[in-house]
C-alpha cells in the first residue's frame, strides 16, 4: 500500500473514514451533466464514507431528470447497504449504460438513501467529447473518478488518499 497522504487544512484523508462506512447528508451542490443536459442538480444528497475510498454521492430522484434514467440489466451486492440495482442515463443522443446504481431496499443503516442514485464519474468524463460542461460536480468543481472501474467514488481537491481501486489495491 502507498503511504497515507497527510491532509492539509480543509482536507480529509480517506484513511480517516470509518469501516463499516458512514452515511452523512451533504450541504454542497451536486450536479451531473451529460450531452450538455443537466441530469441532476441537488443540495439534498448524501455521501458514503468508507476507509480508503473517496466519497460516493447519492442523489434524490426528485432532483434528477427522470426521463433520462432507465433501468439497466444486472445488479450487485454490498455487505453494508444490500442489493444494488443499475441504471442507464441518456441525454442528447448519448447513452451511458449501467452508469448509476441505487438501493431500493437498503439495510437499516442506509435507509435514508432508499431509491437515491449514485453515478460513476468516469463515463461522464469520457463523454465530454463535443459537449462542454459534461461531468460530475461538487460545488462547481469537476470531480476526478476513483481509480479503476469497480468503485464509484468522486475525488475533489479536499479529499486525499491514496485511493483503493487502481492496479494493486484490491487487497487493501
Account of the protein in words:
The protein is built from 1 helix and 15 strands; from the N terminus they run E-E-E-E-E-E-E-E-E-E-H-E-E-E-E-E. It is mostly beta strands. It has one domain: Beta Complex (Metal Binding Protein, Guanine Nucleotide Exchange Factor, Chain A). The strands form 5 sheets. The protein has a 4-stranded antiparallel beta sheet. The protein has a 4-stranded antiparallel beta sheet with strand order 7-8-9-10, with no helix packed on it. The chain has a 3-stranded antiparallel beta sheet with strand order 2-5-6, with no helix packed on it. It is globular and about 45 Å long. The mean pLDDT is 94.
CATH architecture: Beta Complex
Give the CA-based shape. globular
The CATH topology is Metal Binding Protein, Guanine Nucleotide Exchange Factor, Chain A
- Beta-strand percent range: 35-45%
Residue windows where pLDDT falls under 50 for at least 5 positions: none
Rounded to the nearest angstrom, the distance between the terminal CA atoms is 7 Å
* Number of continuous helical runs: 1
Question: CATH superfamily assignment?
Answer: Domain of unknown function (DUF427)
Largest sheet: 4 strands, antiparallel
CATH class assignment: Mainly Beta
Question: Keywords for this structure?
Answer:
172 residues, Metal Binding Protein, Guanine Nucleotide Exchange Factor, Chain A, four-stranded antiparallel β-sheet, 3% helix, globular
Amino acid at each position: 500500500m502507498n503511504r497515507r497522504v497527510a491532509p492539509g487544512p480543509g482536507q480529509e484523508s480517506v484513511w480517516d473514514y470509518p469501516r463499516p462506512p458512514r452515511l452523512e447528508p451533504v450541504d454542497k451542490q451536486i450536479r451531473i451533466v451529460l450531452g450538455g443536459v443537466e441530469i441532476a442538480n441537488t443540495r439534498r444528497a448524501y455521501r458514503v464514507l468508507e476507509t480508503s475510498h473517496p466519497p460516493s454521492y447519492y442523489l434524490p430522484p426528485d432532483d434528477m431528470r427522470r426521463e433520462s434514467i432507465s433501468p439497466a440489466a444486472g445488479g450487485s451486492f454490498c455487505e453494508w447497504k444490500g442489493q444494488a440495482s443499475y441504471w442507464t442515463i441518456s441525454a442528447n443522443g448519448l447513452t451511458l449504460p449501467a452508469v448509476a446504481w441505487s438501493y431500493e431496499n437498503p439495510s437499516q443503516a442506509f435507509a435514508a438513501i432508499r431509491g437515491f442514485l449514485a453515478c460513476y464519474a468516469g463515463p461522464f468524463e469520457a463523454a465530454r467529447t463535443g459537449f462542454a460542461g459534461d461531468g460530475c460536480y461538487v460545488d462547481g468543481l469537476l470531480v476526478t473518478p476513483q481509480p479503476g472501474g469497480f468503485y464509484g467514488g468522486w475525488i475533489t481537491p479536499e479529499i486525499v488518499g491514496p485511493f483503493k481501486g487502481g492496479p494493486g489495491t484490491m487487497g487493501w
